[in-house]
């Protein structure tokens, strides 16, 4: 069974937002991200990864919200098999977010073999336009995190 292991918040002030969740709820910082697409923090409660992200361009944020939008951005399910979940998502009519996947260079995009990273593998759109991440490797700060080597 798939398990929710990841929630991503989009914010304009990742430092203040991360500090809030650390100070108020006792979450632990387990990582930082700063690349041409995104900056922010990865926090955990020991079971769930909470990403506090500032998107640097509209392509990786998803054009329907853009880089300046703040709020819950997406959530992620850790699955046993990307192949199986891909089929189930297709059967349910959930489209791949190939625009975001391409901007991140994941999900079979970027001119080559499918890249897999801990914390992002493939994004889809669920009902009501909610962006959903699916991952076999999981997210940093979760008990089952096991990053896959890049192909």
Features:
single chain; 151 residues; alpha/beta; 7-stranded mixed beta sheet; 7 strands; globular
> Which whole number gives the mean pLDDT?
85
Low-confidence stretches: 109-113
Q: Give Rg in angstroms.
A: 15 Å
What is the topology, as strand order, of the major beta sheet?
Answer: 2-3-4-1-5-7-6
Beta fraction of the residues? 25-35%
Distance between the termini: 26 Å
- Characterize the biggest β-sheet: 7 strands, mixed
How would you sum up this structure, described in words?
This protein is of the alpha/beta class and 151 residues long. A hairpin with a 3-residue loop joins strand 2 and strand 3.
In short:
With 151 residues, the protein is an alpha/beta fold. The chain has helices spanning 14-25, 58-61, 82-91, 98-104; strands at 3-10, 28-34, 38-44, 49-55, 71-78, 122-125, 131-135.
Fold topology:
Layout: E1 3-10, H1 14-25, E2 28-34, E3 38-44, E4 49-55, H2 58-61, E5 71-78, H3 82-91, H4 98-104, E6 122-125, E7 131-135
């Amino acid at each position: 069974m798939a398990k929710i292991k990841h929630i991503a918040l989009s914010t304009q002030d990742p430092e203040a937002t991360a500090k809030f969740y650390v100070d108020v709820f006792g979450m632990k910082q387990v990582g930082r991200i700063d690349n041409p697409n995104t900056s922010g923090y990865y926090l955990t409660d020991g079971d769930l990864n909470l990403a506090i992200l500032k998107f640097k361009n509209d392509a990786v944020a998803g054009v329907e919200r853009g880089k300046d939008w703040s709020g819950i951005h997406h959530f992620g399910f850790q699955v046993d098999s990307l192949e199986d979940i891909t089929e189930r998502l297709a059967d349910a009519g959930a489209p791949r977010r190939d625009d975001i996947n391409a901007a991140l260079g994941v999900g079979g995009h970027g001119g080559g073999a499918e890249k897999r990273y801990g914390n992002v593998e493939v994004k889809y759109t669920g009902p009501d336009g909610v962006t959903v991440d699916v991952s076999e490797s999981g997210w940093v700060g979760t008990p089952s995190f096991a990053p896959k080597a890049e192909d």
